[in-house]
Write a structure and sequence with these properties.
Layout: H1 2-21, H2 30-34, E1 52-54, E2 62-67, E3 72-75, H3 79-105, H4 110-113, H5 118-127, H6 129-139, H7 145-162, H8 171-176, H9 185-200, H10 205-215, H11 217-223, E4 278-283, E5 294-302, E6 304-305, E7 310-316, E8 319-325, E9 334-337, E10 340-346, E11 352-358, E12 366-369, E13 372-375, E14 377-383, E15 392-398, E16 404-407, H12 408-411, E17 420-426, H13 435-444, H14 448-455, E18 463-469, E19 474-479, E20 494-495, E21 515-516, E22 522-525, H15 547-558, H16 564-571, H17 577-591, H18 600-607, H19 618-634, H20 652-661, H21 680-699, H22 709-713, E23 715-719, E24 728-731, E25 747-749, E26 752-756, E27 763-767, H23 785-790, E28 794-795, E29 809-816
Parallel strand pairs: 1-29, 3-7, 6-23, 11-20
Antiparallel strand pairs: 2-3, 2-29, 4-5, 4-22, 5-25, 5-26, 7-8, 8-9, 9-10, 10-18, 11-17, 12-13, 14-15, 16-17, 18-19, 19-21, 23-24, 26-27, 27-28
Helix pairs in contact: 3-7, 3-9, 6-9, 13-14, 18-19, 19-21
């Protein structure tokens, strides 16, 4: 009996040893993870960098100075060493984040998290980011400036990776159970492809095609105009176009493909989200207290931990620049140097179009184009899935338009003999490899001419590049590679068989809209329309709603003797321009109903100061009500859910214009009800009651605490990989998607920066909602969030040289070659 117990115990021990030291499916080896000497217990905080590092690949000595926010200030004698050191330092703090982004862009998340990521990976492979990144990387030639920068950066990342044992790995590697791969220029290009997708990877083509098919061109023209009623464009109205336009392609007789069972395909294409938005502006010396420009930028993106951005100073004998970079990409993306400052916001022009493709048969080897059958290109993609022995294969089909994202043949939803697919034409697929150089030359720029030269290198995603210098010049340029289209091209699904529907070329880069030193004394953008309709080229029919741009321009127009704090106050502006526009009209309708006389919700809105401040109740009611009101007006005729043919809905601008100026429009009637024709007044009152009912059901009876805007909005900054416990929830703040302080539940200002230019040395301020470190146990992981939530800024330590003294310097490291 003892012998049997011994054998059983031995087998059990062996089994446990196997379980704890080997991965089980998608689970990591638990023994390693919980090992007190090597496992996650070792990830308890930011480890100090050694006083001296000897790294193979460094040519001359590099000095790294760390300030009190753990921002590294790099001083190198040459650019190769500079970008090597940048790669090393960023990897030291953000290695897992860098790899996660590249795995996502390449469609390889299944390799580390299992088949739960399969649909996302499959979509991203079909989107073609990895394929384009490979082509861009292969196009670099030996000796190219961009390639030299990328290789130096990759060498620095790899120098850090080579030092790592399991004990030193970021905790996410241990939890998920994988090891970092070697970095390469290809991975940095993938990082940039990821930003192309985040900023320009959406389309309403299917939704608009469903509208056109059901209601016809007249309704589209009435409800979906190409320019809003109220707008304050980025390039001020009245700006002269100092160029002779190139010919624009003629509008063909048919501007859309004939409907061919598009149906549920629309669910799979993300709609553009311009309200995520970003802001930037610069006031000229005529408006500032110092007599020189001040520039501000706050790009609005998904709020994550680790933070999207990483602060750094990069200095060589020919360059000294400070700002925020993307982990995984060399240089500074948004920042300043001694003479200039610059920032970016997303343009949001229509650069993703879908083409309806008719295949010859289910093999999809040929498709109909220009009166003949044209061969497709086929690529077999392999998905390695963690925990599964056999990889999964997927066949990707390419046309001359681009990849087939979805087709009826493969999902068996077609009912005709000829299968239909949809090919995507996307500016993200352009193989121009100079985007990196755009920022490289901005980092070194000294004046307006240098700024303009730098922009010639930048292609995608199109950005509103704002600029200011200490020569008292300010400027803004919606810049990037923009397709030359006929009016409304790409508003609907295009006919993939008709050559007239192809993109016919590009808007000349020098004819991208721009303005320098406008009479109003400032330049600004908030993702609204780039220009008024006098611009000779079609950029798209839908941009971010006008409210943020209107408010910024109102504030800056009134501003005199501006200071850094003046611009910071605009970044934190919570005034609700949409409420100012629509609330008086809809409150009048409520006031006519005797039931609202003692209605506390109605009285709260009537007294509200129209500011989305954290502790106000007004925005809680208003923001929920306007969503409910728009749904009551449009959801019956233009459904956005529970149907195979989801549709776009008219914009907020068009909705509020209709309420004000077309109160008898037929669209107010709810076609799903029988025996009654609803009026605009019915819709306003009914949606208000529904709003209060839903808020009460969710929050309880009206209460100044539980109904406070900050509690209801509940801004969360979650871990990038959604690992529980590694994020911050319920961060107290105001704002909202349509507010200048565009802080919503999960998105908001990902980096706030204000720079006061000076003839001698600029003063700059900034922070982001997180910290420098990617280690959840580090004090520098989320140390800036509380200040960010209050709208405060840190003064940025911009050092003139490596010997400069400052009480904020915490430590320094010398890096030399082996």
């Amino acid at each position: 009996m003892k012998f049997i117990r011994f054998i059983v115990s031995l087998l059990l021990a062996a089994g446990l040893a196997y379980v704890f030291n080997n991965p089980l499916g998608a689970l990591p080896a638990l023994g390693k993870l919980f090992n007190p000497f090597e496992g996650f217990w070792q990830n308890g905080g930011t480890k100090p960098t050694a006083d001296e590092l000897k790294l193979e690949g460094i040519k001359d000595e590099v000095t790294v100075v760390f300030d009190d926010n753990r921002v590294p200030h790099l001083f190198a004698q040459n650019e190769d060493d500079l970008y090597f050191a940048q790669g090393y330092m960023v990897a030291q703090d953000r290695l897992w984040q860098m790899e996660f982004y590249t795995l996502a862009a390449a469609g390889r998340l299944t390799e580390v998290v299992g088949d739960r990521a399969l649909q996302l990976d499959r979509y991203n492979r079909r989107l073609g980011m990895a394929e384009t990144a490979k082509k861009i990387t292969a196009s670099y030639k030996k000796g190219d400036t961009a390639l030299k920068i990328l290789e130096a950066y990759a060498a620095g990342v790899n120098a850090y990776i080579k030092q790592l044992s399991y004990k030193d790995l970021p905790v996410e590697y241990k939890i998920i159970g994988y090891k970092p791969e070697e970095w390469a220029p290809y991975k940095t290009v993938l990082m940039l492809m990821n930003m192309r997708n985040v900023l320009n990877g959406g389309s309403d083509d299917f939704r608009m095609s469903h509208v056109l098919a059901k209601y016809g061109a007249d309704v589209v023209k009435e409800l979906f105009p190409n320019y809003p009623v109220i707008e304050s464009p980025i390039i001020p109205v009245g700006t002269k176009w100092e160029f002779t336009p190139v010919p624009v392609p003629p509008v063909p007789a048919d501007i859309a493909a004939k409907p061919e069972e598009e149906g549920k395909i629309a669910y799979n294409i993300a709609s553009p989200a311009p309200e995520i938005g970003s802001n930037n502006w610069a006031v000229g010396g005529s408006k500032s207290a110092s007599g020189l420009p001040i520039l501000a930028n706050d790009p609005h993106l998904q709020l994550t931990l680790p933070s999207i951005w990483y602060q750094i100073q990069l200095s060589t004998p020919t360059m000294n620049v400070y700002g925020a970079c993307l982990p995984g990409a060399p240089g500074v993306t948004i920042g300043f140097n001694k003479d200039i400052a610059w920032g970016v916001t997303n343009v949001g022009s229509d650069v993703m179009d879908f083409y309806q493709i008719k295949f010859r048969d289910k093999t999809m080897k040929e498709y109909w184009y220009n009166g003949a059958w044209k061969p497709t290109k086929t690529v077999i993609e392999e998905f390695k899935i963690k925990g599964k022995a056999e990889p999964l294969k997927d066949t990707l089909v390419y046309t001359h338009h681009g990849p087939i994202l979805y087709n009826h043949a493969e999902d068996n939803s077609f009912s005709k003999n000829v299968p239909i697919g949809h090919a995507m034409k996307w500016v993200g697929h352009i193989e121009d490899n100079t985007d990196l150089l755009g920022f490289y030359y901005l980092n070194k720029a000294k004046n307006y001419d240098d700024y303009r030269k730098a922009l010639t290198y930048y292609k995608a995603p199109a950005q509103n590049f704002i600029f200011a210098d200490n020569h008292n010049d300010i400027a803004i340029t919606p810049n990037g590679k923009l397709p030359l289209k006929w009016k409304e091209q790409g508003k609907f699904i295009l006919d993939g068989s008709n050559p007239a529907h192809d993109w016919q070329g590009w808007i000349p880069a020098e004819q991208n809209p721009t303005v320098k030193n406008p009479p109003r004394g400032f330049v600004s953008s908030a993702n609204q329309f780039s220009t008024d309709p006098t611009y000779p080229y079609y950029l798209g029919w839908k941009f971010a709603p006008a409210e943020r741009g209107l408010r910024i321009n109102e504030r800056l127009t009134a501003m005199q003797q501006a200071t850094v704090d003046s611009l910071r106050s605009v970044q934190n502006d919570n005034f609700n321009v949409e409420a100012r526009r629509v609330l008086p009209d809809i409150l009048k309708i409520l006031a006519e109903d005797p039931a609202n006389k003692n209605n506390v919700a109605y009285e709260t809105l009537a007294r509200w100061n129209m500011r989305n401040d954290a502790n106000e109740i007004g925005p809680t009611i208003f923001e929920r009500w306007v969503k409910e009101l728009r749904a009551w007006v449009w959801e019956d005729e233009f459904p956005t859910k529970n149907t195979d043919a989801i549709m776009a809905q008219p914009t907020r601008d068009r909705t509020w214009d209709m309420i004000k100026n077309q109160p008898n429009a037929k669209w107010f009637d709810n076609i799903t009800t029988t025996g009654k024709v609803e009026t605009m007044q019915d819709i306003v009152r009914g949606s208000f009651k529904a709003t209060i009912d839903s808020l009460t059901a969710k929050l309880g009876p009206f209460n100044t605490q539980t109904w406070a805007w900050t509690k209801v909005k509940s801004t969360d900054i979650n871990h990038l990989g959604r690992i529980a416990g590694f994020g911050r929830q319920d961060i107290p703040n105001g704002g909202g998607p349509g507010i200048v302080n565009a802080t919503s539940e999960t998105h908001g200002p990902s980096w706030r920066m204000v720079v006061q230019l000076d003839k001698e040395w600029p003063k700059a301020y900034g922070l982001y909602p997180g910290g420098q470190s990617g280690d959840p146990g580090s004090p520098y992981y989320d140390n800036m969030i509380d200040k960010w939530a209050k709208g405060e800024l840190n003064e940025l330590l911009f050092m003139k040289n490596k010997t400069e003294k400052s009480s904020r310097i915490v430590s320094s490291t010398k890096i030399t070659g082996k």
